[in-house]
Model the fold of this input.
Amino acid sequence: MDGGRPGIGALRGSRLLTGSGLASSNLADAKAALIEQARAIGFGTIGITDPDAIEGARDRLQNFLDAGSHGDMEWLANEPARRASPKVLWSDVRSVIMLGMNYGPDENPLALLEQKTRGAISVYARGDDYHDLIKKRLKTLARWLLATAGGDVKVFVDTAAVMEKPLAHAAGIGWQGKHTNLVSRDYGSWLFLGAIFTTLELPRDDADVDHCGSCQACLDICPTNAFPAPYRLDARKCISYLTIEHKGPIPREHREAIGNRIYGCDDCLSVCPWNKFAQQGHETKLAARDELRGPSLAELAGLDDPAFRALFTKSPVKRIGRDRFMRNVLTAIGNSNDASLIPAARRLLDDASPLVRGAAVWALSRLLPRAEFAALADISSDDDDGVRGEWAIALSSSWPGSSRPSTPW
Ligand code: B12
Ligand code: SF4
Ligand code: SF4
Done:
């Protein structure tokens, strides 16, 4: 998800025997002990692969980039050769250890989508930021490996130029489903991934096989039709991209389909039949905080910057900043069909951020009868071209006013 953080942690180790007393020559024993250790510190699944195992991913990554499917995630297009090959990233790497951490939800995320006055934050972002937790655990495991079997290591979670899904597929901890994410027979779609690169030549696992069969539930449910084909995502249409990575106004054609999703989207993950084997996550830091399970849109719309930061302390949501978040909240308000939210949107018409003002215009254009909306418009007074454009488009577009709620004032 996240291209903005430093993603590599390097540790250098001695080649001497220490720790559990395993002989470094006995790499099979080292692997067995590593698996045990990984489970003890909270990784539900682990597999090991050859750094050259994802050769095929290079062309697919290039196709994805050539099609512009990465949108404005320019960091994804930087140095594709490094991204598609662990050895180009680090020539000394001999084995890639892939790890998965279960974050199975305790309720069906799809249920919240019906509650239009509440915001849906995707499951992965309802607790503490997984990057921090997983990075710490990966380092603990990597230090243990150094002390036990020697070698050098680097750890990665999400943010570095590593293709974690194909590597995890090759390491046998699941397969890349048609929604492009890794699916596990033990955890369904709910696994975070992390990687340890090591100079040790550890025994490899077999790649998993694709168990999607004729199912295409994830493709069918996608609200924005973000899959041009099975196994291929156009991120520019994905609600996760639009609400998290995309910085500007949300393109008009996707606003309605976003519904009440204010941070990320879980639809394609939630509908996967392999979730019947999923287990509820046990990491307390990743567990949903009560205040982030469907927070009230009216209350969220009242957050200033300090209040936003306080509410989202340690949460990944904090990363997008208050203005981008408020844009998302206003999009959900515009989709609520609930007149009680008009005052909240009305107040944000005067916000300091043009991104927020523009989104407030759109939300009000959806909630107010035409005459009342037009009476609010003072297009010439906004000094931002984008906001003036929102007014102009809203005023000129056809008005399906009959179904609009009346104003509460
Ligand atoms: C960029 C990114 C995004 C982007 C783009 C997503 C994408 N699918 O590429 C956006 C912002 C949209 C995004 C959204 C999400 N993300 Co994200 N994201 C990443 C990131 C940083 C890089 C992914 C990447 O390399 N994309 C480039 C494309 C080209 O790679 P790819 O998806 O592997 O593409 C493959 C397929 O297209 C396949 N392919 C193409 N054609 C064909 C044909 C056939 C027949 C086959 C078999 C395969 C195939 O080959 C390609 C190469 O393997 C990774 C972390 C990492 N460093 O890997 C996290 C990561 C993928 N995200 C993650 C998560 C949790 C999410 C969300 C669920 C968050 C949310 N709830 O909102 C959504 C899911 C949306 C979705 N359906 O993918 C997790 C997924 C865990 C898992 N179990 O797989 C990761 C691994 C982070 C982590 N460390 O846990 N994300
Ligand atoms: S996360 Fe949502 S919008 Fe993105 S591909 Fe999956 S269902 Fe579609
Ligand atoms: S929903 Fe069906 S097609 Fe999609 S990943 Fe799951 S099994 Fe595969």
Remarks:
- The longest strand covers residues 95-102.
- Strands lie at 8-11, 45-49, 95-102, 120-121, 153-156, 175-176, 182-183, 191-198, 261-263.
- The first helix runs from residue 27 to 40.
